[in-house]
Inverse folding.
């Protein structure tokens, strides 16, 4: 009976000894076997997990010692229950209850200090940041419709359940019907801040006021799971440079993906510095084999599979491949030095790769005194402006966010499972076109022209105004001179139905996750409403399918 507690104690001692004996190896194992697991976001570091393991395995830690004593007490109680020579003692019905209470007490002793405990009044009170966002939304025009907030995993004060009582919609909020495509879209938005975030109607982004410590190489900070720029086909982004800076150098931490065939010296990216008026005051190029390399270079080069040279490496990172396996990849470091200092207010990064992806994980400018200024995070992006700051939290307004409902005229159709791939290309212009799912093709192909690569040509003005919005029904007034597609960036599910001027029309799935209705030219009243009966039938079919799969699996195991 005393063997299990002894084994647990020995395991704790051995684990703690191993952690102290080889901290570097322990952190490497944590990074490759735990932090590399698929998840929506990753805010812990290997050092965080390592410190937690040291705390949990410390025998002098009252929590650990208390849990160990509780386990020992449980073992001691099992002795009279199972080994007593008196039958009446062994058959006493109170033993299960005693063991249950003892086990619960042992668990509480260990976990009591892990989770914060607050009074109900404090938990129920709305956070000032959430109240401020609510006031900002109330100040917007009603016709613009609702807007979303992109919650931050490290800000427990304003998670989804703290926003919901104020009527605030969190883009990453909980859904009991969440399919894999919504998780994939959320992962992309968490990782890369580009047009897909704007398309999702994310207007406000709370973030910690004080930046946490980040890894750096040669002074350039980076976060391996969140690139600043990740695009193909000419993608670009712009970052603010603090006023008064005379820039002499730009430093980048970057990587190329699926670009092993790009030849030595070919330009894969451009860097341009712009003045306050937008004039280009300095330019530079990122070249394959000079400033950047394919991040799988070390794995592919031994097989003569890379056409450009290896460059200075900034860091090794673990990435999750499509198969679910993890692999080591290498980030590149580059310096772009200008002949003379320039006064610039904006730095623009642009992808020039003919194939593959360019990813920029960190960027910094060097001034005339040799001081580095980081261009890291949303606060440096030109589309954001700070609208609130209090209690260590900053709220940024995304001025590039699209409205909840808008019209487009161009469309393209994705094959099964490729919508996100199409949308990640720079040729996708969410303000001008929609990517329709393979199972919901356009009903009248003559109303729109299939999108061609590149930005769409200027079109006559169109208007989509939300006149009423509830969780079960949305009313939109549309004015379109040529006809096109009404995109409502709310979740597409079977059960939603569309009516144009009172006549039911097919509900389409567009841009991977949203509701789309094809509309003819003219002025129309569009109503999108939820059919509870249809949703119930769809849910029933899914449940029956799950039960059938489970029954077949049991039958296979039995046979």
């Amino acid at each position: 009976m005393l063997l299990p507690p002894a084994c647990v104690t020995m395991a704790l001692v051995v684990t703690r000894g191993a952690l102290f004996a080889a901290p570097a190896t322990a952190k490497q194992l944590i990074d490759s076997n735990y932090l590399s697991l698929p998840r929506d976001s990753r805010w812990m570091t290997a050092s965080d997990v390592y410190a937690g393991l040291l705390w949990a395995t410390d025998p002098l830690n009252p929590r650990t010692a208390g849990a160990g004593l509780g386990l020992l007490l449980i073992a001691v109680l099992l002795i009279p229950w199972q080994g007593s020579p008196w039958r009446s003692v062994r058959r006493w019905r109170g033993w299960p209850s005693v063991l249950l209470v003892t086990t619960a007490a042992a668990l509480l002793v260990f976990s009591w200090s892990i989770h914060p405990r607050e009074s109900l009044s404090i938990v129920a009170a709305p956070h000032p940041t959430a109240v401020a966002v609510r006031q900002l939304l109330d100040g917007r025009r009603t016709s613009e419709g609702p807007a979303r907030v992109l919650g931050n995993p490290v800000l427990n004060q304003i998670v989804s359940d703290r926003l919901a009582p104020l009527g605030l919609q969190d883009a990453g909020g909980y859904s009991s019907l969440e399919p894999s495509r919504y998780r994939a879209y959320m992962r992309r938005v968490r990782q890369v801040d580009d047009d897909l975030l704007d398309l999702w109607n994310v207007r406000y982004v709370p973030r910690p006021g004080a930046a946490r410590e980040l890894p750096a190489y040669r002074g350039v900070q980076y976060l391996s799971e969140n690139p600043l720029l990740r695009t193909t086909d000419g993608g670009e982004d712009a970052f603010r440079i603090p006023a008064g800076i005379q820039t002499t150098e730009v430093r980048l931490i970057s990587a190329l993906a699926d670009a092993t065939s790009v030849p030595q010296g070919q330009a894969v990216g451009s860097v341009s510095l712009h003045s306050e008026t937008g004039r280009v005051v300095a330019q530079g190029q990122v070249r394959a084999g000079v400033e950047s390399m394919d991040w799988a270079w070390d794995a592919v080069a031994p097989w003569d599979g890379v056409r450009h040279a290896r460059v200075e490496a900034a860091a090794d990172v673990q990435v999750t491949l499509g198969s679910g396996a993890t692999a080591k990849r290498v980030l590149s470091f580059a310096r772009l030095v200008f002949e003379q200092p320039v006064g610039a207010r904006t730095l623009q990064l642009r992808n020039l790769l003919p194939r593959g992806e360019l990813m920029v994980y960190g960027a910094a400018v060097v001034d005339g005194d040799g001081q580095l200024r980081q261009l890291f995070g949303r606060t440096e992006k030109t589309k954001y402006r700070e609208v609130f700051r209090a209690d260590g939290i900053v709220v940024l307004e995304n001025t590039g966010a699209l409205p909840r409902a808008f019209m487009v005229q161009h469309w393209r159709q994705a094959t099964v499972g490729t919508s996100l791939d199409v949308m990640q290309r720079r040729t996708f212009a969410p303000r001008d076109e929609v990517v329709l799912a393979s199972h919901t093709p356009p009903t009248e192909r003559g109303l729109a022209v299939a999108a061609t690569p590149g930005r769409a040509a200027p079109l006559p003005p169109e208007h989509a105004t939300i006149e009423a919005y509830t969780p079960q029904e949305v009313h939109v007034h549309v004015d379109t001179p040529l006809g096109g597609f009404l995109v409502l960036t709310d979740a597409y599910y079977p059960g939603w139905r569309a009516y144009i001027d009172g006549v039911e029309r097919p509900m389409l799935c567009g841009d991977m996750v949203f509701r789309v209705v094809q509309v003819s030219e003219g002025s129309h009243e569009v109503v999108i409403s939820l059919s509870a009966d249809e949703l119930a039938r769809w849910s029933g079919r899914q449940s029956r399918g799950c039960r059938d799969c489970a029954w077949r699996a049991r039958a296979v195991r039995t046979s």
Remarks:
- Residues 405-535 form a domain with the Immunoglobulin-like fold (CATH 2.60.40).
- Residues 447-459, 545-559 have pLDDT under 50 and may be disordered.
- The radius of gyration is 28 Å.
- DSSP finds 14 helices and 28 strands in the chain.
